[in-house]
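Hi V.,

You were right to ask for the full record rather than a summary. Here it is.
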Amino acid sequence: MPSTSPPGATALPLRRGDRGPAVEDLQRRLAGLGATCDDPPGDYGASTEEAVRRFQRQRGLPDHGTCDRDTWQAVVEAGYRLGDRLLYRRSPMLRGDDVAELQRRLSALGFDPGRIDGIFGDDTARALADFQRNAGLLIDAICGRRTLEELWRLEPRPGGHDLVSPLAERLRVARDGAGGLAGRRVGVGEPGGFPQGVVAVCRALGDVGAVGLAFHHFDPSRQAAEANAAGVACFISLVLDPESGDCVTAYYRGFHYESLVSRSLAELAQSRLPKVLDLGDGGVTGMASPILRETRMPAIEVRLGRPEVVVQRTAELGQALVEALSRWVTTDLA
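Predicted structure:
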């Protein structure tokens, strides 16, 4: 089983110009994933930086070329293959490409593990137990040798390799959104620096009878955990980007899977926000950032450039997002 920490984990983040065993460990792991790197071992040069950028793009992470905590975690997760270890529900939850492959196989066989996110949570445990029950196996929600043998033996259900997860997610959202936005609990978060934006969106939600719950924390994983515990129906993250003049809206995409309902909400939000906020249209993009991957409900992350302009237009921001949400629950998910 791969170690999850580089030699001297406090060395993170690693960036161009760094040297030492932590860099060599990173290079070795990237090489094991098929990345080419021409720098000398332990030397974080241009080739290592480019290898990190390519990996980040493949994994739906910001491609800044620095190995930060999220990138390191993704590198470690990518090293796991289904069968390398026992998979089961534990705390903290197991993460890795092996979990994603298990989720994909279960979904292709008609057992819904939730989104394909590489995180072994409650939905994955339930889907695995359902599979074991149907296969006549011991029902312990543990993916061990016997369960793997049965998974590998069975072919996906008739009709090909289509996954049940996207349809199940869409049906859940449509069911929960029956009757429109009124009464729906919506999470609105920010990592610091934009509390007035969260207040404005929550106020606009209240004006149409919805309930806006505010989440403020610099750690996106903490925000995601709090939103999951609160049971919100969807989540909107607001991030100010002083280095940009654009508005970009992201939704969850990772492990060759994307949340179609989140994408629909992202497209509706992006169709309104650049114009009302006087920002460039940076488009919609699929990402696997922690706030999008770890929330259990449909979620989008709105990155807003020109903060000096945006903070003066928080009312317009709130109104545009509520219009997008109203369209999302009454039309696109009908």
